[in-house]
Amino acid sequence: MLSGVARLPCRCREEPGLGGCCGSSDIGSPFVNSENSLLIADSLPINTENSRLGKLYFVREITAAAPVAAIPTTTARVALWNGEPTGGAFYAIDSVFVIVVTSPAGTSKPYSVVGQLNSKPLTGMTESGLRRSSLTGRYGWRGSGTRTVNSRARIGLGQTVVNDNAWQALGTSVINTAAGVGSTVDFFIGGKIIVPPRFVFGISCLTSSATSTTVRLGIRWHEIRAPLGADS
Amino acid sequence: MYAVLPNQRLRGFSDEQSLDIHKEIGVSQDGILLLAEGLPPFSETTRLGRGFIVRTTTAAAPVAAIPTTTAMLALQNNEPEDGSFYAITEVFAIVVAAGASTTLTIVGQLSQTPRTVITQAFTPRPYTGGTEATAWTLANAQSAYNMSNFAAWQALGNSYVNTANIGAANVGFLQGGRIIIPPGGFVFGISAIMGDTASSTVLLGIKWVEIRLSLGSGG
Asked: S-S: B49 plus which of B2, B124, B168, B209, CB 3.0-4.6 Å?
């Protein structure tokens, strides 16, 4: 049995309508298809195990602010700095998101998120004090009594970063229509971007004209203790 | 490495191929184990566990901004502390009535501590059919629930632009278990945001699977 994983109970004995794991077909050898590929099936929803294993956090701006009208240079609207010591956990970016708070009446506008992982480490970064939250409620589970996440991450707002000319599109933009707000972007990165210890990942929101617009940005990340490959 | 093919006709195999044989699991020249999804991607999680859906029954006006404390639909995990976790697989909204052409999205929030038992206003239905859901799940769901706003509301997908004066639009945001409601009374709440709140109404829904697992030691 895998560490930390409880064996699923044989539910069908208690709840016949659910099927479940009691059939003889549940016990046996793995199958291969005609192309010799091992047949598999996800036994958990695709993101569950990553959330269950451990440190998945998110932050979101409390104060809405104007997006920018061009690809940023040296300012990251929200910056995530990995405060782990060398050899410590890396941060695998799970997703980024933006919520449009105000948008000018009578104007239809696009909103998108861009990001940059700096190529060199920083010795430190000013902490904004933005609240971190867990996507599993782990710090309130079983009455631990604390709601403070245990992370060395620092979150910077309006952080000056090196312009590595590597700002990249993160997902597909959305259109906010002329009537009120209601736009969001939630782009799943799935660990494609990794922030090593002492490195910083910054994001900003783009729109066609920043006049009369405000948004709130957020980042979700996993903290994972594993060695990076030699070429990283 | 070998796998056993049983003496039966298998999906995707000819009769001849389905004979009782030992068949080697393929590995590429680069040493990569060859895998193939043997079921549609969500079938196994539904089959293994308890997959449920709950939806509001009365269309309500969306909100015009990020909520402060009120969730239009809240789902509570009332399992005992050592009971099942709820892995949120999807949230959705259906536009019933709309005024102007406007954007539609859903934001959500997970409580960070257990909450007192909430009202059971909507009946969960299982993915696998049947009407005995109330006997199979301890989930409670209600509308207009005060989340207390400890954690921030977060975007759960990309918004959609609805055409003016037309209902029947919807958004469905796959979560894939990214958000997990622990047992013991934790609550996950969602609300719909639209530009037009005067003429628009929506129905909101949450889908989840109930899984016996334990949170990892990370953190």
From this structure: B209
Q: Give, in order, the Cα–Cα distances in Å from B131 to each of B52, B127, B139.
A: 11, 10, 15
Q: Which of A48, A58, A98 lies at the smallest CB-CB distance from B177? A: A48
Amino acid at A7: R
Residue type, A93: I
Q: What angle do CA B43, B45, B50 make, to 5 degrees?
A: 115
A226's tokens:
């594993």
Residue B8 has pLDDT above 90, yes or no: no
Higher-scoring residue by pLDDT: A134, B105: B105
**Are B103 and A181 contacting, i.e. CB atoms less than 8 angstroms apart?**
yes
- Kindly determine whether residue A28 and residue B153, on different chains, have CB atoms separated by under 8 Å: no
pTM here?
0.82
Single out the residue of A193, A190, A187 nearest to residue A218, CA to CA: A187
Contacts of A94 by beta carbon, 8 Å cutoff, 6+ apart:
A50, A56, A58, A188, A189, A190, A191, A220, A221, A222, B178
Q: What is the C-alpha to C-alpha distance for residues A192 and B87, in angstroms, rounded to an integer?
A: 23
CB-defined contacts A:B, below 8 A = 300
Tell me which residue in A4, A48, A171 faces B180 most closely, judged by beta carbons. Answer: A48
- Structure tokens belonging to residue A5: 């994983």
Is residue A168 within 8 A of residue A114, CB to CB? The reply is: yes
Chain A residues with beta carbon closer than 8 angstroms to that of B209: 45
Alpha carbon of A130: minimum distance to chain B alpha carbons (Å): 10
Query: Across the interface, which of A4, A44, A60 has its CB nearest the CB of B217?
Result: A4
Sequence-distant (6+) residues with CB within 8 A of B151 are A131, A133, B109, B110, B111, B112
Mean pLDDT of B78-107: 91
8 Å CB contact of A40 and B17: no
In chain A, residues 16-75 whose CB comes closer than 8 Å to chain B: 17-21, 28-56, 58-60, 62
Overall average pLDDT of the B39-55 stretch: 83
pLDDT, tens digit (0-9, with 9 covering 90-100), for A77-136: 999 999 999 889 999 999 999 999 998 888 888 999 999 999 999 999 999 998 888 888
